[in-house]
Amino acid sequence: MATLRSVPPAAPSVSARNDDGTAPSSYVRSIWLLQLVLGASVVITVLMVQALEPSLFLRWPFSSGVGVIIALTAVAIVVPWHRLPRAAVAAIPFADIVAIGLLSFGTDLRFGFFWVFPIFWVATHFTLAFMIAALGTIGLIIVVDAAVNAVGPVTALRLIVVLLSLTFIAITAFLSARQTRAFKQLLRRQASRLQGTLQRVSGQERRVSQMLNGLDTGIARLSADGEVLALNDTYVDLYGIERDEPQRPGAAVEYATLHGEPLPEAERPFTRASRGEQFDDERTWLYDSHGEWRALSVSTRRLVSSDEPESTLLIVHDITALIESERARERLAATVSHELRNPLTAIIGHADLALDHPDLPPKLRDQLEVIAGAGERMQKLISEILAGSRGVFREQSAPSTADLSRIIASSLESFRPAAIARRVDVIDDLPPSAEVVGDAFRLRQAIDNILSNAIKYTPAGGSIRISGEVTPDDVILRFIDTGIGIGPDDLTRVFDPYFRARSVRESSTPGTGLGMGIIRSIVEDEGGSLVLESEIGTGTTVTVVLPARQSAES
Questions:
Q1: What is the DSSP track for 468-518?
Q2: Which residues pair with 285 in a beta bridge?
Q3: Which pLDDT belongs to residue 7?
Q4: Distance CA 29, CA 454 (A)
Q5: Each residue of 433-488: pLDDT tens digit?
Q6: Among 103, 167, 265, 464, who pairs with 65 as Cys (CB 3.0-4.6 Å)?
Q7: Distance CA 386, CA 382 (A)
Q8: What pairing do the DSSP bridges indicate for beta strands 311-318 and 218-223?
């Protein structure tokens, strides 16, 4: 693994970045350009002087000024300015000011217009102090020229106008340069922010792409015109298509049913999504490029954004494992149901044969009838489980009525031997009749589960009290036991499948954690409600409220 090293900051230098933010090469080019323009202008002027007034070459200040400017031009080209401090560069324009002063000396400043070049240079690239110093140098030269050559009032006025004009040019150039530098800095900061924003957006796009490619769900994003905007890796692998030509059909073929007919091109989910159709959880079969059948759940979602055109998201789930698990569950339910029916048939048959004997004692006859009834209910439960596992549709039957008092009495008859064996006292405080609207078979299933739990989790010497109250609208049942109870943290979870409270897990009584969920499901399906109250070491109260059967008079 590579290690990160701390790099100390480099010392500031002219070669790294100039004061105005320009690169060294640009800075050096500006020096060359300004000095070459001045040198070329002076050379052109010298040629004109040679043709028009050659006597000026006899004046040593003029000849000296020309020589100095030409020499400074050569120096400006030869010297490596990017290696020198910035103050050293200022020597060139100041030397130009002195050289132009020599050109103009004693000539009524006819060549003083050349001062525009160094003044513009200083005002553009240097600080205010350098600009004032440059104007002061020019003013000093003008004063010395006026004093030595004893100029008159007109010439003095001309000198003053030249100085004022140069001052105006210098101030204008200085302010313009400051504004330009400020604007450049602003643009640089904005460019830096935009670059940072672009990097963040690009990073987010990469992360989103990585997340989408990590999903086991195929995703395709299509424009309103049917153009493919994005595909994740799962979609590409599932359909065996080429990323460069996503519109072309892939190596996989879609079917409406397993081993059925291939889907026409117009009915393929991709084609329908390209047309803007919206559908949800449509099942298709795919024969992929590896020769395997896959069950797919296909959906679309419309994507609407304020800053992007509308598009459609095609979502493809591979549900082959789910279909296989459903089939395995059906096979298991069928096998278990078949295996359970055989012994139940034997139990019910022998119980019926025993009941046919006329000389049976009454107590034994009652016990055999309980066994036969329990076997018949078990057979019906197995049939319902098998039908539910196969997804068999059962037409909703007309509302029926049931007497809860009779159902509970019958259930108690079945569970009383278990209560006696555990030395649990069961107290029945029910009204003579408690008719409700509901399925008697399913309500018996719920009552059996409630009593079974109460007996299993009530210690020896405890009691279970069953009470009922009939109102014009409801029948209210209460099952109150003195069992081990349920903690407050577990009370809200006891209806979850396979969940067992801590107090139950710590006991030696086995269980599956399915009973309370089944009870609540049955009660709510029958239009009722269930309330569970419990306290550790005190017991549990189960309150069941079911709609009462309305009398014919009402």
A1: EEE-SSEEEEEEEE-S----HHHHTTTTSTT---HHHHTSS----S-HHHH
A2: 255, 295
A3: 34
A4: 98
A5: 889 988 888 888 888 889 888 888 888 899 999 999 999 889 999 999 998 888 88
A6: 103
A7: 6
A8: antiparallel
Report helix angle 128-149 to 91-104, nearest 10.
20
30 vs 93: CA distance, rounded Å: 12
> What percent of the chain is helix, strand and coil (3-state, nearest 5)?
55, 15, 30
Inter-residue contact 249 to 257 (CB < 8 Å): no
Q: Which helix (H) or strand (E) holds 293?
A: strand 293-303
- CB 246: neighbour CB atoms within 10 A? 19
- The most distant pair of C-alpha atoms in the chain lies apart, rounded to whole Å, by 163
* pLDDT tens digits, one per residue of 347-360: 766 676 677 777 77
pLDDT tier for residue 14 given thresholds of 50, 70 and 90: very low
- Residue 153: alpha-carbon gap to chain centroid: 83
- Which residue in this structure is represented by tokens 């000539």? 107
Candidates 129, 131, 126; CA nearest to 97 is 131
Task: Quote the CA–CA distance of 276 and 225 in Å, as a whole number.
Answer: 8
What is the rounded distance in angstroms from the CA atom of residue 43 to the CA atom of residue 527? 110
Mean pLDDT to the nearest integer, 244-266: 79
356 contacts: CB under 8 Å, gap ≥ 6:
none
What is the phi-psi region of residue 389: left when phi exceeds 0, alpha when psi lies from -120 to 50, beta otherwise? alpha
Closest residue by Cα to residue 322 from 301, 292, 297, 286: 297
Closest to 35 in 3D by CA, of 94, 109, 86, 105: 94
Give the closest residue to 66 by CA, choosing from 91, 45, 93. 45
545 pLDDT exceeds 90? yes
Residue-level pLDDT at 147: 75
Write down the mean pLDDT value for the chain.
78
Query: What proportion of the chain, given as a percentage, has pLDDT over 90?
Result: 6
Q: What is the DSSP letter of 395?
A: P
pLDDT digits 0-9 by tens, 401-427: 889 999 898 888 878 888 888 899 999
- Is pLDDT above 70 for 11? no
Per the model's pLDDT, the better-predicted residue between 73 and 398 turns out to be: 73
Residue 194 has phi, psi (to 5 degrees) of -65, -40
Say if CB 457 and CB 481 are below 8 A apart.
Answer: yes
Give the C-alpha distances (Å, rounded to integers) separating 290 from 217, 235, 240, 241, 251: 18, 15, 9, 13, 9
Q: What is the mean pLDDT of residues 154-179?
A: 79
How far is Cα 233 from Cα 209, in angstroms, rounded to an integer?
9
288, two tokens? 């992929």
pLDDT exceeds 70 at position 541? yes
Residues facing 548 on adjacent strands: 436
Cβ–Cβ < 8 Å for 229, 223: yes
Structure token pair of residue 387? 């039908």
- Torsion, Cα 169 175 177 182, to 10 degrees, reads -170
